[in-house]
Amino acid sequence: MAFPTNDVSISDEPKELLFDKHVEYIANHGNDKNDYEYCMTEFLRMSGIYWGVTGLDLMYQLDRVNRQEIVDFIKKCQCPTSGGISACEGHDPHILYTLSAVQILCIYDCLEEIDTDAIGRYVSSLQQLDGSFFGDKWGEVDTRFSFCAVAILSLINKMDVIDLEKAVNFVMSCCNSDGGFGSKPNAESHAGLIYCCVGFLSITDQLHRLDCEKLAWWLCERQLPSGGLNGRPEKLPDVCYSWWVLASLTIMGRLHWISAEKLQKFILSCQDVETGGFSDRTGNMPDIFHTLFGLGALSLLGDKRLRKVNPTFCMPQYVIDRCNVKPKIITL
Ligand SMILES: [Zn+2]
């Protein structure tokens, strides 16, 4: 019996990485402060900067954006009361943007520009009795926030401010019978959340708690005939899932369980030949989020024009080395 597949066709795709176009696409992003898209994305400005800066650094073009402007912006976004960092001046701090800010400052090698003790206190204040984390003071719980917490704390070298054992137990309580993870206990497995939980276990040196065979099987079933990867059964392929799925498989030492060649073809087909940048799938409008995750996935696949990316942090490997952070990877 054949199951209907949600997929796309990619007949006349660009076959090469449009390197220079992507550099221009990212470097010019946000130059026009009146641009509609720029104004509409204020609520995720900090992450937008992280996606752009990381993408440029992976292409050896970090000097294409103004470092001082970005660092000054981050400093203005740290909340003097809670210590957390917001997406944009005047917004409430959130653990997602706090991670983005810390990642950018690590890339620029200037963590001392912000108060990292206050960040440690902020992250610790978000941990709950069951070990889970709120994303902000409004109290939503999600395994994404558990990942953000340990990623931030390992980058600023303050892992001891939280109850790590409880944090690990909470993440493991979100593991499902298919080997995957959801956003909270008993929530459906989803590739983005699997990446967060596998990344969490990589940072906390707990990868032995995974059922790697089962989970890697579920992940490689995400590859569709077009070569693209989806995030859940029956969904369309999407470039950002190339990153979530591939990074998880890489951490588990099982990158070779999917067809790299077909995936590369799919990712290259999502490039915009005119403006540069990657879209979620062939023919759609590019955006900075899918551009970073397209480049990141190509780096994991070994593209020689890009710097090596760290699969746990989605940051250049040389930055992770310089921070002396050692997320674990399974080698078979
Ligand atoms: Zn996507």
Q: Give the class-level CATH name.
A: Mainly Alpha
Specify the number of helices. 14
The whole-angstrom Rg is 19 Å
Sheet-strand content, in percent, reads: under 5%
Largest beta-sheet details: 2 strands, antiparallel
Count the domains.
Answer: 1
Under CATH, the topology can be stated as Glycosyltransferase
State the total count of DSSP E strands.
Answer: 2
Mean pLDDT across all residues, rounded?
93
**Which structural class should the secondary elements be placed in?**
mainly alpha
Q: State the share of residues found in helices, binned by percent.
A: 40-55%
* Cofactors, ions and other ligands in the entry: zinc ion
- What separation lies between the terminal Cα atoms? 35 Å
Compressed to H and E, one letter per element, the order equals HHHHHHHHHHHHHEEH
Shape: globular
Q: Going across the biggest sheet, name each strand in turn.
A: 1-2
Low-pLDDT residue intervals, each spanning 5 or more residues? none
CATH architecture: Alpha/alpha barrel
Catalytic activity: geranylgeranyl diphosphate + L-cysteinyl-[protein] = S-geranylgeranyl-L-cysteinyl-[protein] + diphosphate
InterPro entries: PGGT1B-like, Prenyltrans, Ptb1, Terpenoid_cyclase/PrenylTrfase
Keywords: Metal-binding, Phosphoprotein, Prenyltransferase, Repeat, Transferase, Zinc
Family: Belongs to the protein prenyltransferase subunit beta family.
Describe the protein's architecture and organization.
The structure is a single chain. This protein has 332 residues and is an all-alpha fold. It has one domain (19-323): Glycosyltransferase. 45% of the residues lie in helices and 1% in strands. The chain contains 14 helices and two strands. Helix 3 (45-58) packs parallel to helix 5 (95-107) and helix 3 packs parallel to helix 13. The mean pLDDT is 93. Residues 238, 240, 280, 290 line the site of zinc ion. Zinc ion is lined by residues 238, 240, 280, 290. Catalyzes the transfer of a geranylgeranyl moiety from geranylgeranyl diphosphate to both cysteines of Rab proteins with the C-terminal sequence -XXCC, -XCXC and -CCXX, such as RAB1A, RAB3A, RAB5A and RAB7A.
